[in-house]
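To the wet lab folks,

You asked to see what we're planning to order before we commit. Fair enough. Below is the target structure as tokens, and below that is the sequence we designed to fit it. If anything looks off to you, flag it before the synthesis order goes out.
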């Protein structure tokens, strides 16, 4: 803003000098020895021109201030949007980490359950009961199906994580 005002002030000074220099040169050479009646309209014209230039400069300054204000608002809005994006990305990463931790715990629990079921399937006394054996085999099939679903879930999470990383590096 200061730079714009300085540039405009320099422009006004140069404009005034450019308008005043030919008059001063002409006056020194004696070319401006005109009757008093002609000087007044010329001075009025010059004053009108100066007022016109001043008005134009004021309008330009006002326009520049408005543009600068709009740019400041736009920059603030973009910064807020960037913060929101970063905040949203951090939240997504946090949620993925939490989900990963939960899936890891689920995997541990399923592994323990599978190990316990395997011990039960090795127990000859439990296998004597035909219905018990059928139920344990059925449970093993269910755990096997659950582990396949868990594996699919982990693969989905890997794709999601990769997508988040691509999205994060692209923004």
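Sequence we intend to order:
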């Amino acid at each position: 803003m200061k730079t714009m005002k300085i540039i405009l002030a320099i422009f006004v000074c140069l404009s005034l000098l450019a308008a005043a220099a030919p008059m001063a040169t002409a006056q020194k050479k004696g070319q401006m020895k005109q009757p008093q009646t002609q000087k007044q309209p010329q001075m009025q014209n010059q004053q009108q021109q100066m007022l016109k230039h001043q008005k134009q400069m004021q309008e330009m300054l006002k326009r520049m201030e408005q543009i600068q204000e709009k740019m400041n608002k736009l920059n603030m809005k973009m910064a807020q949007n960037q913060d929101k994006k970063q905040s949203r990305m951090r939240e997504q990463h946090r949620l993925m980490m939490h989900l990963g931790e939960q899936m890891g715990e689920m995997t541990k629990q399923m592994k323990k359950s599978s190990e316990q079921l395997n011990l039960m399937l090795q127990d000859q006394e439990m296998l004597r009961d035909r219905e018990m054996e059928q139920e344990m085999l059925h449970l093993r099939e269910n755990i096997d199906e659950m582990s396949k679903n868990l594996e699919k879930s982990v693969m989905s999470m890997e794709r999601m994580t990769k997508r988040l990383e691509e999205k994060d590096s692209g923004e």
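Structural context that might help your review: The two ends are 31 Å apart (CA to CA). Helices lie at 2-29, 36-122, 124-127, 130-170.

Thanks,
Computational group
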